[in-house]
Amino acid sequence: MSWFANLKITTKFTVILCVMFVTLMGVNAVDDYLRQESLIVKDATDNARILARQIVETREYMSSVVRGEPEANFNLVPQVVATQVAKRITTGSKYYVRQVSLRYRNPANRPDAYETAMLQRFGREKAAEQWEVVTIGGKRVFRYLLPMTADASCLGCHGRYEEAPAFVQARFPKGHPSYGYRIGQLIGAVSVSIPMAELYRQIGINLKLDLAVVSGVVLLILAAMSFMVHRSIIRPVRSVATSIGNVAATGNFSERLGKSSDDEVGELVGAFNELMEELDRTTRQRQESEDRYRNVLEMAQSAIVTFLADGKLIIANRKAEDLFGLPKGELLGVSIYTFFEEGDAVKGAIETYLREGAAAMIGEATPQRIRSIRGNVTAVEMALSVSRSDHNPLFTAILRENGRY
């Protein structure tokens, strides 16, 4: 994740918001889909139950009121009436309804494999109803079955052969499996089928509407969060970073930032302003100290120089310019060892000090001879001291003239 760590905060925040949005939408879509599926299956079950009860009640009602009418009009047979009512009710709908029986008379009432299994189960377990989503021919289908049991009115046609009406006997001879029922015995079931593709189509419509609404709400929330984070965090932090860059580039510690809040970001801005104030004060004090030091150097009656361990001059006063015969602009950066007639001895003392922490000449006054750039030789008494700056030793030499040759 090093690539992510190297991104700008704005980019990181945008990426995080996008991931949050996609995740929330994915979770919501899955949850919404499952809820929609559950609700639609429940709705289908309720509708199928109502429809099946209507068919059963129609059949039972016709069985209880008709007498000899079916002999003259076969369409008044209770089963036929119930079947036609089911067709009329479901015309133009996604429901497919029919009556099925293991001992059917009408071939249209012959059960399929699933219905056969359910009828056999009803015969064993006396279940009130059965519904589930099954796969038939590679397609998912909602199936609902409501069992029907024989009552006294049913036995007029489905009881003993000898007691059946003549028109029934004429159609279905003795020994036909549709005879011989007893009261309370399973006689068949109302079967309701719905292709799940029809239900899923409604789920898709509902899901799109829900996702559109939820997406709008989530986008508004994320946009508000993004605005608040940019305004309260990213923008102030960017201002601090810009100011630090300006300070690093110019060395000007007078810059201050406006504090717009008292939260953690406001504390950061306040701490930055306090830091700038302290650095500004420290810088002024150091500048004043350096100015005083330079004034002291310039007023000194002896040459005073400061150099690094390699001899490179970094500070020199006016007397040093006269002694070495070079103006300060040309003198700084030149090795002091080149001006000593015994420069190797001075250099050796410096190296010894660096190795052992002590050496001759350091902290002592020793006679030396200085040769200027013009070749003039001056006898001096050198007082050499050492100090440290940023862990690098600085050597300061006070050269008091004893005479020129």
Automatic annotation (TrEMBL):
**Residues annotated as transmembrane:** 211-229
Give the keywords, sorted. Coiled coil, Kinase, Membrane, Transferase, Transmembrane, Transmembrane helix
- Please provide the Gene Ontology terms (biological process) for this protein: regulation of DNA-templated transcription; signal transduction
Cited InterPro entries? HAMP_dom, PAS, PAS-like_dom_sf, PAS_fold, Tll0287-like_dom
Question: Any coiled-coil ranges, and where?
Answer: 272-299
What are the recorded GO MF terms, alphabetically?
Answer: kinase activity
On whether Protein biosynthesis is a keyword of this UniProt record, the answer is no
**Gene Ontology cellular component annotations, sorted alphabetically:** membrane
PAS domain residues: 289-344
| UniProt domain HAMP: residue ranges | 231-284
Q: What protein name applies here?
A: Histidine kinase
